[in-house]
Design brief:
Blueprint: E1 2-9, H1 13-19, H2 21-27, E2 32-36, H3 42-49, E3 56-60, E4 70-74, E5 80-83, E6 96-101, E7 104-110, H4 119-144, E8 148-154, H5 178-189, E9 194-195, H6 196-200, E10 228-232, H7 234-237, E11 240-245, E12 261-266
Parallel strand pairs: 1-2, 7-8
Antiparallel strand pairs: 1-12, 2-4, 3-4, 5-6, 6-7, 8-10, 9-10, 11-12
Helix pairs in contact: 4-5
Protein name: Putative exodeoxyribonuclease
GO biological process, one term: DNA repair
EC number: 3.1.11.2
């Protein structure tokens, strides 16, 4: 039995709802959908959720209005939900939420974007330091409980040259800094998470990308970044049979500057 999981930065769920997000989610076969940059108050998110049939949700709004916000939607009622990862600084920032399904923990992440030479980059680095510890602890707890883990979201880092069209011009910019890329390598190498989309596109020299600026003709020219990931524990990654970016056919059909990233799992973990 296959189970399908999608992650999508919606760039404001109310705006996305007006551009085609609701039609997309009505049509998707995904059983779990992770959302980032929801940018809505609790009542506003509830209004959108009320228009969706058959979904359960854990919702983590940001304390700062109009900022961040993440959610995990599941067709099956979760066994447990958690907001944040035990961070005094970041648990109210709307950047992380988890839910438990039988044998599986799914999380939605919106890692800060940063900006070199500013407080925003310092914030990003503090988040990364704390979150790396959480990723290790999360995997250890899951293994002790016989569970798998899937951390989905906008990681705001392009890991390899293949993940960024204009990588030579962006080596000193946030999102492709050597130290950021090294941190993401630690997620994979030290903590053993697997980038399931790259697992299925290992020989691709460019892309597939998941974010394109609204400026110029970035989308039409496929001058994008791959910053949206599904990171799985090895046992779950071994059950991933396919992964893809759901790139819109045309610029006009986009409901976000990001595209959904979808993975298919041969689970046997109780999602069916």
């Amino acid at each position: 039995m296959q189970s399908i999981v999608t992650t999508a930065n919606v760039n404001g769920i109310r705006a996305a709802a007006k551009k085609g997000f609701l039609e997309w989610i009505d049509a998707t076969e995904s059983e779990v959908v992770c959302l980032q940059e929801v940018r809505a108050e609790t009542d506003q998110f509830a209004d959108v959720l009320a228009r969706l049939d058959g979904w359960h949700a854990v919702w983590a709004p940001a304390a700062a209005k109009g900022r961040a916000g993440v959610a995990v939607l599941s067709r099956r009622a979760p066994e447990a939900t958690r907001i944040g990862f035990g961070s005094a600084e970041f648990d109210v920032s709307g950047r992380y939420a988890e839910l438990d399904l039988p044998g599986l923990t799914v999380a939605s992440l919106y890692l800060p974007s940063g900006e070199v030479g500013t407080d925003r980059q310092d914030e990003k680095e503090r988040f990364m330091a704390e979150f790396l510890v959480h990723l290790g602890e999360l995997r250890a707890r899951a293994a002790a409980d016989g569970r798998e883990v899937l951390v989905c979201g906008d990681w705001n880092i392009a890991h390899r040259e293949a993940d960024l069209r204009n990588w030579k011009a962006n080596q000193k910019k946030a999102g492709f800094l050597p130290e950021e890329r090294a941190w993401l390598s630690r997620v994979l190498d030290e903590h053993g998470y697997v980038d399931v989309l790259r697992q299925h596109h290992a020989d691709v020299a460019e892309g597939p990308y998941s974010w394109w600026s609204y400026r110029g003709r970035a989308f039409d020219n496929d001058a994008g970044w791959r910053i949206d990931y599904q990171m799985a524990t090895p046992g779950l990654a071994a059950r991933c049979t396919a992964a893809r970016v759901e790139r819109a056919a045309t610029h006009a059909e986009r409901w976000s500057d990001h595209a959904p990233v979808t993975a298919v799992f041969d689970l046997g973990l109780g999602l069916d």
